[in-house]
Amino acid sequence: MRATHLWKQPRGWAAVIVGGLLAALVTLAYIGPAADPQAHLRDLPMVLVDADEGTPTGSTTVRLGKELGTRIEDDARHDGRISWHTVTSLPEARRLLERGEADGALVIPQDFSRKALTLVAPGATPQRPTLTVLTNEGAGSVASSMAEKAARATAAEASTALGRRLAERAAATEPGPDRLLLLQDPVRTVTEPARTTTGATAGGAMTLYLTIALLLAGLLPAVLLTMTVDAALGYSPLEMGPRRSLLPVVRITRTSTFLAKAGIGAVTGFGAGSAVIAVAVWGLGVEPDRPLQLWLFAGLTCAAITLLTLALFAVFGMAGQVIALLIVTMFGIPLSGGTVPVQAQPDFARAVGELLPARHVTEGIRSLVFFDGLGTGLVHAWLVIGAYAAGAFLVGLLVARLYDHRGFDRATALELARHPEHQAPLPA
């Protein structure tokens, strides 16, 4: 048969069409969430610190910080892009940031009102009040950048509003041109990190890289096991370069085959996850906050992905490999929140990503590497990845038993007739 004859087969054209559709879906999954994250931004978690103590003027106390905080919260409720959590102390804000419950913070200091009023007080030395933006590298490079940008935009709007408020207050005293110029932008904004991170962090992107490494490390054992075990049982040829070997077919139930693969795969997957963390920590300088828990979580993750892939092989045959690639990496990675934060993804991406393992792997790794294992995301990640491992094993086992019960032998009668010595079935 000539190679050109293959193009006359409908299956060949079906493969081309399906491949093109899958390529389009993968492009949508990767570029869709990243095309315009600002347009899809909803409820980005941030902290607003109102520590302003106010300053007495006559019989009253002026609290410009409180007025500013109320204005920021009202604007955010109408806009919907930022979800502010207001606290009254800087340590409380740092605690929320260190738990991974916020991507950034805007701090109104204790002396905000006092310094602001010096800009319009006759004879006083003008002191510009300061707003501090706290960044959170552990949230991820994109999330941290978006939070910083949002906080700076909020600070700029607050400065303009405060300038108008102070100009009205100073109208009776007829301030000089230098004061009027200062009131056009009275607030100084500074940026500083909420905490100092050590070791290799890749600018906050280490979470994404570790997620990718673990997902691939979980896929590889399943593919290698399927290739080697099936070749050893005679169900597929083993090709190494120009050499091709095909062993006699061994009649074995699908259930027994899956159990063997699953047992070896779970152990191999855990070992692969351990290798990823060992190389990252000892070889590349990653310094996780919880190294022991990270090792266990990585091992469970890889074992779960291995079992998931083996279950897909058991259900769909060789097509299971493509389905596993789509679920675990091609769709999972761009929708994981490791690059574009979940709050900046379209609704469809948020919904689909929640069903895939990559998002929960990302949450668990981020918590263990940057946030000392705190926050509710880690517990949820443990539960979801554990459910994936148990669910994949049960589904693969039940489907394999169903296929056996329906008489769907992997070997054809012709294949078994060629090797009658291997026809006796092995116990399930």
From TrEMBL:
Keywords from the UniProt entry: Membrane, Transmembrane, Transmembrane helix
Membrane topology, as annotated: Multi-pass membrane protein
Residue ranges of every copy of the ABC-2 type transporter transmembrane domain listed in the record: 23-400
Chief location bin: membrane
Entry's localization field: Membrane
Metal-binding keyword on record: no
Sequence intervals crossing the membrane: 12-32, 208-238, 258-282, 294-315, 322-340, 379-400
Signal peptide: none
InterPro entries for the chain: ABC2_TM, T7SS_ABC-Transporter
Pfam families, per database record: ABC2_membrane_3 (PF12698)
Name assigned to this protein: DUF3533 domain-containing protein
Organism: Streptomyces virginiae
